[in-house]
Amino acid sequence: MKILMAGVLLVASASASFGQSKGTDEIVAAEKSWTDAYQACDLPAMGRILSDDLTLIQHTNGGTMTKEAFVKSVGACAMEKVINDPSRVRVYGDTATVQGTSTYHIKNSATPISVIFTRVWVKNGGQWQVVNHQSTGLPARK
User: Do 50 and 38 touch, CB atoms closer than 8 A?
Assistant: First the structure.
């Protein structure tokens, strides 16, 4: 009986780890999609990535933006290069949080902008979408 119980616990543990790993892999892929869409000025892709009820807190002044306002700002196509490092990904079923850093190389600007961010993703209809994004500016690198 003890061996059977140990086997059940082992299978349950492996299943939970697989689910966590699969969810983590999906979020890492979604984060790459965010980076690619931002850098490429791909408004349709960014529109799919963002939830309709998005709240985005800006790194510059703490103000908030809606999905519509953020997609419009992406439409300025100001990004030359986006480097995104989603260093901590945690998945809780159909919700995930990502903490990391991003560096934005903006066209016609000598100094890139670096931020630390937290994004909250929710799985809607089988697709991961950002429902909340908050970033804080980091000091300029010298």
Answer: no
